[in-house]
Structure formats: structure tokens, C-alpha cells
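Please, structure for the following, as C-alpha cells.
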Amino acid sequence: MAKKKNRRPADGYQLPPHVERARQAAGRVAGWKPRPKPPQRRVILTGFGMSLLCLGMTAVFWFPAHALAEDLRSRGVTSAATVVGVDSKPKYVKVRLASGPWAGDEVKLSDYAGMYPDVQRDEAVLVTYDPQQPSRVLSRDWVEDPPANLPTYGTAALTLLCLSLTTAAAIRRLRILRRSGPGVPPASSAGRNDSRPSAAPSLRS
């Protein structure tokens, strides 16, 4: 007589454990998305440092020039003067006062945010100076109507630009670190655990 074949029901079949683990690992890898590379922390710190540097330059260009013009407008003395020296290396404008208690003295015009009036040698100008400290002197036109402080505007624009870019980078870094998954595929760690070689049995002679 022919032997009966032992047939198992199809729904009772179970995959071997290692095959089931491989199938689960493949599913995790299929659903894994690589995490975008966040902006580096040193880049963000450098950006904030540049913002502070530009802000400091803005303050240096704005406050001394503004304070000088305000002081001379309130208590300055206006005097006729003659330009006796103009140079660009280093840049300066020297005038000789022609009236007032300091008549005959030669002084260098104070810069306004690093700027000087466009004058020529032997040109007659009107200046306003501090009667107690005549070295603090500006062109009268600049005291009454200060020029556009272009260095201040430029450094202020750089400050806003650096601060905006750095803030955007910091926000992007926080979002990536909070919302993204791990930076390595799930199978890599599982693979390392599963593929760890077992200790070989010792052979005794």
C-alpha cells in the first residue's frame, strides 16, 4: 500500500525566525527616510558672532558722529577758516581758523562716521568748533544738516542680513532634530546585532 502523505494546512505554516526577522527589517528599511543634514552648530555661532560684530560697527559709526553734531549744534562757535591741508593717506582735512579766540590755530576737522567734506587746499570754509576743545570741529553745513551716514546704513543692513540668515539656520536645525528620525537606517543596528559571530567551541585535544 502507498504511504499516506502528511499534509499540513497551508494556514498553519510559520516562517523560520530568521526569515521573519529579515522580513521585518526589510519593512523598516522601506519606511525609513534619511534625515536631512542640519546646519552645523559652529556655523550658527559664527553667524551670531558676525551679527554682533556688525552691530558694534554700526554703534561706532552712529553714536560718536551723532553726539558730536548735537554738541556743536547746541554750544559750538562758528568761524571762518581756510583749508591748509588735504590728504588721503591718512585721510584728513586741516584748516586754519580765521576768527574767534582761536584765530590762527590750525586744527584737523573731525570725521563724521569716517567721512570728510570734499574741499580743496586754500578753499575758504565755515566751520563750527567746541570753544573748550577746538579739535572737535565740523563743517558748519554738516552741523546744521548732517550728511547721510552711509557707513552706519551699510553695517546696519549687514547686521540684519547676518541675523536673519543665522536665525533661519538655527530654526531649521531645531526642526530637523525634533521631527526627523534617526540618522542611520534601522537595519544597520539590527544587522550588527544579528551578524555578531558566536564564540567558536573550544576543541580539547
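Residues 41-75 form the longest helix (35 residues). The mean pLDDT is 81.
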